[in-house]
Design goal:
- The complex is a heterodimer of chains A (259) and B (255).
- Chain A is an alpha/beta fold and 259 residues long.
- Chain A contains nine helices and eleven strands.
- Chain A has one domain: P-loop containing nucleotide triphosphate hydrolases (Rossmann fold), CATH 3.40.50.300.
- In chain A, the strands form two sheets. Chain A has a seven-stranded mixed beta sheet, with helices on both faces. In chain A, strands 3-2-5-6 form a four-stranded antiparallel beta sheet, with helices on one face.
- With 255 residues, chain B is mostly helical.
- Helices cover 84% and strands 0% of the residues of chain B.
- The chains are: A alpha/beta (259), B mainly alpha (255).
- Chains A and B meet through helix 2 and helix 3 of A and helix 4 and helix 5 of B.
Chain lengths: 259, 255
């Protein structure tokens, strides 16, 4: 069954019924362009929600609001119980240790090696750790993405898929509870895209994370989504599983699944 | 309504003023990014040394060679070290240093921060528990503000050495005589205002480079534009600040 706008989202009975992100009446506009209007969504623990929408429909804006990079005009975004727009820098940093963000362009620091890239969040987030522990964490994160041998390379020496994996390792290094993925497979070939999607699933299982994935790559959506939210006209137009939405007769939804 | 050029200029000036204001509020708040500051000092100061030294040497040499005929005409050839030292220390060495740095450092900062902005690296820092303004802007502006005066003092010395060689191409002037004449001529009123203004030059170069990089528009074209306009605006600002500085020294009768 498809849950329509503003109605309470369905929760699968097998997932733990604990909301980790709760978004209510979120609105954001840039000038005349109303990107999000009264957007509502919930993310429960253990869920992987894919937000599906056209390019420029405000998907990236949505997750940047969740992590506090963009300030919304109205609405509340409760992440692990705290309302993001109200937080000061210090509290926001505390939340950001628990929420990982994978950038669309990977955002690896060009001037640093892979090791320094992974060290950066560890050191900056004043999570005090001994050098040995730090090294172990870095090796663990790199082994998880299968790229332990690249530790001393510069990002410019890596391929697109490798960069994505390193970025994922950097996101995972703080062992976040929630991961926000901004178009994780965009710009990758279908095979690498598939590998990344599988890796996302593996890691979600291993570290028991919940995630919001922004994507319009249906292959990736099919693999990772436990639920799909359709972002149309700035609203959460519909929610449901892949199969449910695929069967929908609503032309606006059908549009996405016809290829 | 499409904003006119003048309006755009005013709004950008306002933005730069706000950006500068933010610099001063962030400067005194912890956490202080010393490691990054020293790294920037190394890149901005040490790495610019050869370029600044070569330019200053050539300027000293050329100014001396070119001033000579005029002084010879008046039979005042012996004044060559005096005249050259004043023009080098008061004006040429600091301004040339600042312009070279505007080109090298200003464009570097503009392009680096611009590409970091475009590839979301600035956002990535933000979510990694780092205030990007502090980490990127405050450290860079502080290092340009402190390194450019040091480079300018070095340029003073090297250009005076160039002046010494220039004096000896057609005439004869001993090492001791040259430096005696130079130090007899130069007063604190020459040296201090000329060093003081280089702090302003350094600040302007840093803040404009960072402003342009931080506000770079998306895409590679935006990065190029930030680097380019960082150089243009900071070079222009160097001259404007020079003009203001000379008015102030003149008012205080330091000249």
């Amino acid at each position: 069954m498809i849950a329509e706008t503003n109605s309470e989202p369905k929760v699968n009975s097998d997932t733990e019924n604990k909301t980790v992100i709760q978004i209510r009446n979120l609105s954001k506009s840039f000038g005349e362009n109303h990107v999000l209007r009264d957007f509502n969504m919930d993310l429960n623990k253990g869920e992987n929600i894919v937000v599906l929408g056209k390019s420029g429909s405000g998907k990236s804006v949505l997750i940047k609001c969740i992590i506090g990079l963009i300030k919304p005009e109205t609405g509340t975004i409760k992440v692990l119980g705290q309302n993001i727009p109200d937080l000061n820098r210090e509290d926001l940093d505390k939340i950001r240790v628990k929420v990982g963000f994978l950038f669309q362009s990977n955002a690896l620091y060009d001037s640093m090696t892979v090791r320094e890239n992974l060290e950066f969040p560890l050191r900056r987030h004043s999570v005090q750790k001994s050098n040995e522990k730090e090294n172990d964490l870095i090796m663990e994160a790199l082994t998880n993405v299968g790229l332990a041998h690249t530790i001393d390379l510069m990002p410019s020496e890596l391929s697109g898929g490798m960069k994505k994996r390193i970025a994922l390792a950097r996101t995972l290094i703080l062992k976040p509870e929630i991961i926000l993925y901004d178009e994780p497979t965009t710009g990758l070939d279908p095979i690498t895209g598939k590998e990344i999607s599988n890796l996302m699933n593996e890691l979600a299982k291993k570290y028991n994370t919940s995630s919001i994935v922004i994507s319009h790559d249906l292959n990736c959506v099919k693999r990772v989504a436990s639920k799909i939210a359709m972002l149309i006209d700035g609203k959460c137009y519909a929610q449901g599983s892949y199969e449910e939405l695929e069967k929908s007769t609503d032309p606006k939804i059908k549009h996405f699944f016809e290829l | 309504m499409k904003s006119s050029g003048f309006r755009k200029f005013l709004s950008e000036t306002g933005d730069i003023a706000r950006f500068t204001g933010r610099f001063f509020t962030e400067l005194f708040k912890p956490r202080f990014e010393f490691a990054e500051f020293f790294r920037q000092c190394y890149f901005i100061g040490y790495k610019s040394l050869p370029l600044v030294a070569i330019t200053a040497f050539i300027m000293g040499l050329v100014i001396t060679i070119q001033s000579r005929p005029t002084l010879v005409e008046f039979g005042a050839e012996a004044w060559l070290p005096k005249m050259v030292s004043v023009s080098l220390v008061r004006e040429i060495a600091p301004v040339i240093t600042a312009l070279i740095c505007a080109g090298k450092i200003g464009s570097g900062i503009g392009a680096e921060l611009g590409s970091m902005k475009v590839t979301e690296q600035i956002d990535a820092m933000d979510v990694s528990g780092t205030n990007p303004y502090k980490f990127l802007v405050v450290t860079r502006v502080m290092s340009t503000t402190l390194m450019i005066p040091i480079l300018a003092v070095l340029a003073d010395a090297v250009s005076l050495y160039g002046g010494f060689l220039g004096t000896n191409i057609r005439g004869v002037c001993s090492w001791d005589l040259y430096w005696n004449q130079v130090f007899d001529t130069l007063t604190y009123g020459d040296v201090i205002p000329s060093i003081a203004k280089t702090f302003l030059f350094g600040f302007a170069i840093g803040i404009i480079g960072c402003y342009k990089g931080f506000n770079s528009s998306k895409g590679t074209e935006g990065v190029g534009q930030s680097a380019n306009s960082a150089v243009v605006i900071s070079s222009l600002l160097v001259f404007v600040l020079d003009l203001l500085a000379v008015q102030i020294t003149d008012l205080l009768q330091l000249t």
